[in-house]
Amino acid sequence: MSDAARRTMRAAVTTYHGGPEAVELRDVPVPETGPGEVLVRVAAAGCNNTDLWTREGSYAASADDADARGGWLGPLDFPRVQGGDVAGRVVALGSGVDGELDGARVLVDPLLYDWPVPGDPDSALPADVLGSERDGGFAEHVVVPAACVHRVDDSPLTDVELGALPIAYGTALGMLERGGVTAERGAGRTVLVTGASGGVGLAAVQLATARGARVVAVSSGDKVAPVAEAGADVVVDRRRGHLLDDLRDAAPDGYDTVVDVVAGATVGPGLRMLRPGARWVVAGALDGWRVELDVRTLYLANAALVGSTMHTPTIFGRLVDLARSGAVRPVVTATYPLDRLAEAHTALERREHVGKIVVVP
Ligand SMILES: NC(=O)c1ccc[n+]([C@@H]2O[C@H](COP(=O)([O-])OP(=O)(O)OC[C@H]3O[C@@H](n4cnc5c(N)ncnc54)[C@H](OP(=O)(O)O)[C@@H]3O)[C@@H](O)[C@H]2O)c1
What we know:
It contains 10 helices and 18 strands. It has helices at 49-56, 159-163, 166-178, 199-210, 224-229, 243-250, 267-270, 296-299, 313-325, 341-350, and strands spanning 8-14, 23-29, 37-46, 80-81, 87-93, 105-108, 111-114, 125-129, 141-145, 149-151, 190-193, 214-219, 234-237, 255-260, 274-282, 304-307, 332-337, 356-360. The structure holds NADP nicotinamide-adenine-dinucleotide phosphate (NAP).
């Protein structure tokens, strides 16, 4: 039977905000394509921290209401198939879609965008996220707008490697670009990457190295060696207990860019290590989202503290180019079948891994 003719599929369905028990493996109808949409047979779907936070509803918690539950962009509709990272093949087309896409091997941009500044591609903001506001890739099939799929037919990357790219590598590329580590200006910059063994951090290490930057990375224990293998020039072990001193020793002339997913207590004193005109780009707060800083460390150095979330269409386009050429090869530490998604998420939560965990439906 052809993919399009199949009526049901296996899907991991999140039924409420909670732990892994909130996710059920079900037989559900294969979703139908609407106008301008395509049906993708999922070959690989990467796991991300956002899957855990969205499942738990942790995005809505705040200092005022620690028990609030909700998705990143607002309340979530249940049941919901999560999974924002999708690589696969187009197996059915909605009306109005170019017939040449039929059968194409594709990488899916997980975002639909808002355009606060019409016509300015750099102003694009995430308005709707695959696996959060609409059903995602932890299933055998997913329907997405045709505008979100990018052909990668001849990419030398495996499906599993492609499935590791969108959120982690898109976020890392977004942070680097917003931090001035561009293809043209990356060479020679000294870049600090925190959380460097994780999905986003390791991607940042690889991408910054590929752009010719000198990379100082923060990791811990057994993960230090693989982070160095991924290209970091120096890896500081945060468990030694002398993080700030070690970071100063690793870059006595200071940092041009900081790619930070950890935040917390390091931000305030860390800003003193920036070179004039430097950028501290933050996209996560694993060590705490309340930080104290002396604003003089910013304005007297013409430095910038930059918030960064995921990518823009332009940045995703650059990621697709990297996928097509295979210029960066994502590090995948483990794969799990769909019926072991809960194990994949528990492994992600333990944070003993290096790089990405990918589900193969
Ligand atoms: N804003 C966005 O668009 C966006 C997108 C993706 C992810 N994120 C956020 O970015 C963060 C990282 O995501 P990820 O997928 O890369 O996570 P991950 O794969 O779980 O990796 C995180 C790594 O950070 C380090 N770490 C964890 N807790 C820490 C702490 N308290 N202090 C210092 N280091 C700590 C650990 O590495 P070591 O033990 O090796 O140090 C850990 O392996 C998460 O908070 C996620 O929600 C944001």
